[in-house]
């Protein structure tokens, strides 16, 4: 079972930046599509960004497009979310997710953006 551990959350002022990291427990990581999600009012979690297993394709929610960048390092079993120009509405818990034959979630990391 793949284990995911997020880090990098914290408190930042509006307009600031953070980089979230998600470390995976083993090298099967490289076979998974990875994503970052946050809680949503209607569904359990809404997608923020995803990246294909080989890193050559990524998708973003409209609300973060142009501000957030997802990347991955398959040699080090990690995925990242660079968050620029943060807004108070970005305040949330951010979850790392691995999608393959099975799906796995991390425990989440809190991001708080003050106005």
- Report the radius of gyration as a whole number of Å: 13 Å
Mean pLDDT: 95
Structural class call reads mainly beta
Order of helices and strands: EEEEEEEEEEE
> Assembly state here?
single chain
Which regions are unreliable across 5 or more consecutive residues at pLDDT < 50? none
Count of β-strands: 11
Termini separation: 40 Å
Number of helices: 0
What helical percentage do the residues reach?
under 10%
Beta-strand percent range: over 45%
Major beta-sheet overview: 7 strands, mixed
General form:
globular
What does the model show?
The model has no long low-confidence stretch (mean pLDDT 95). Strands 2, 4, 5, 6, 9, 10 and 11 form a 7-stranded mixed β-sheet that branches. A 4-stranded antiparallel β-sheet has the order 1-3-8-7, with no helix packed on it. It starts with a strand and ends with a strand. The chain has 115 residues and is mostly beta strands.
